[in-house]
Amino acid sequence: MTAPTARTGAHVLAEIASQPDCWESAAALAPDQRGLPEPGERVAVVGCGTSWFMAMAYAALREAAGHGETDAFTASEMPRTRRYDRLVAITRSGTTTEICDLLTALPTPSVVLTTGTELPAARLADAAVDLGFADERSVVQTRFATTSLALLRAHLGEDLTAAVADARTALRRTVTGLRDLQQVTFLGQGWTVGLAQEAALKARESAQLWVEAYPATDYRHGPLAIAEPGRAVWSLGPLPDGLGPQVTATGARVLGSDLDPLAELVVAQRFAVDRALAAGLDPDHPRNLTRAVLLP
């Protein structure tokens, strides 16, 4: 009889820990990448799951930086009748059915962020950004997603030095003190709404926790009803004025820090893995999930 595999989360923990180095590499690559959106172009950004949430963050960042109208879609829901100057697709596996179908169907000039130029999505696109150094063995995405966003932030002209330093700080933050939380709601504003969605997905995938995610200001419009002792609201970025005290008054905890929000996502990733391991789950191979989704 084969002995059971130890549920150490070794792959995902190593991948989480490598993110500061990956972001530095992405920032160095950004200026030389051809095919990425130019200022003034009308752009659609697509992905599935985690990659969709990175698309949401990039779209908000690009518009806020004044580079042009930018819309984010999960690949299956992108309106195919809209006209864009460029399509940006994010796909770790490079094989995701919805991404490949979209690249095949649309005549829009396209660029793919993936883990190899030989992959199907890369061959279908007009240009490809090879982030193979950020590929992962774990089913759960961590460093590929954040490295994709780091490269796109750098391409917008951001200096990621502080974000990289904050990510190193995030790797030292204690997360074991959060094992008693029964429920967590992640909040964001602007580009961090996508990060909040991603943080919640990590906790659902890895630890099977009850987690939700909302734009921070919208949290008062209903979700505040579930706040109570033993639960938490975790903000990726500053909270709207007055919301922190309102949450604290319910008995729920308010979590978050002044780290770059992408670095705060690293803390949330570590929280998800810690909770999975504490529950005896395998965060490298969550139940019902595969590394890539291929539809018939």
Automatic annotation (TrEMBL):
GO BP terms: carbohydrate derivative metabolic process
Highest taxon in the source lineage: Bacteria
SUPFAM superfamilies: SIS domain
GO MF annotation terms: carbohydrate derivative binding
InterPro entries xrefs: GlmS/AgaS_SIS (IPR035466), GlmS/FrlB_SIS (IPR035490), SIS_dom_sf (IPR046348)
Protein's name according to its UniProt entry: SIS domain-containing protein
Organism: Cellulomonas soli
